[in-house]
Amino acid sequence: MSFSNIILNSGWFGGLIWTLLFICSIACVALVIDCYINIQNKKITPPEFVQEVNNSIAQGDLAQAIEVCDKVSSPFSRVLKAGFVNVQEGFEVVQDSVGIAADIESETLLSRISYLSVISNVTPMLGLIGTVQGMIYAFFNLGTQEAGAAQQSMLAVNISHGLWATAVGLTVSVIASIFFYYFKNKTMGIILGMEALTLDTTKSLRNAVVVEDEQSA
């Protein structure tokens, strides 16, 4: 019996389990592609942006540095801007603002991959439910039908449904787990790099003086 026939003959509840497994599989692929595209150093700490900001700070042009941050939409630019706009409040406030912004951006980045962890935890449970349902149907049919080829065929279908559900659930779970830990480690490395860059960029603001036109000297 083909895989498609097993799914079609799994009953309404089995069909629901298979639908959820397929949705999780598609979501897993979509999340992996999204993380691969967006969780990159060049997306989070663009080299050109870092150079532009450093040049502006070196020239004492804080207004220009804020402008550069506004032009580039990235976690690093938002963290730096949070510090730049509070220079007039003092260096301690700058540090606090940058720290809070960095925490927010870090949580946002990590939440992007947390759904992979959810999928890796949910799919084995769905597969197990499918297995239990298949076994229930198998024993129900075993007890209500007379012995013969038809009974054996139905028994095989129910057991196959249960085993396939487990196999698919575990496969999706393993794949989601692998990519979750891969992207988690990659994200943590990028976050640490972003924090180091933030420290290097903002430490030059320690003695910054804000004049009336809101530019630092």
What features would you highlight for this structure?
217 residues, mainly alpha, rod-shaped
Helix residue percentage: over 70%
The biggest sheet amounts to: none
Look at the structure and give the mean pLDDT: 83
How many domains make up the 3D coordinates? Answer: 1
Gross morphology is rod-shaped
Gyration radius over CA: 28 Å
Individual helix count: 8
Q: How would you classify the helix and strand content by structural class?
A: mainly alpha
Q: What is the count of β-strands?
A: 0
What's the order of the H and E elements?
HHHHHHHH
Uncertain regions spanning at least 5 consecutive residues: 210-217
Distance between the termini: 78 Å
Give the amount of beta strand, in percent.
under 5%
Write a structural description.
It is a single chain. The protein is mostly helical. It has one domain. The chain has eight helices and no strands. The protein is rod-shaped and about 85 Å long. Mean pLDDT is 83; it is low at 210-217.
Topology:
Layout: H1 3-8, H2 11-38, H3 41-44, H4 47-58, H5 62-71, H6 75-84, H7 91-144, H8 149-202
Helix pairs in contact: 2-7, 2-8, 4-5, 5-6, 6-7, 6-8, 7-8
In short:
The protein has 8 helices and no strands. The protein has helices at residues 3-8, 11-38, 41-44, 47-58, 62-71, 75-84, 91-144, 149-202.
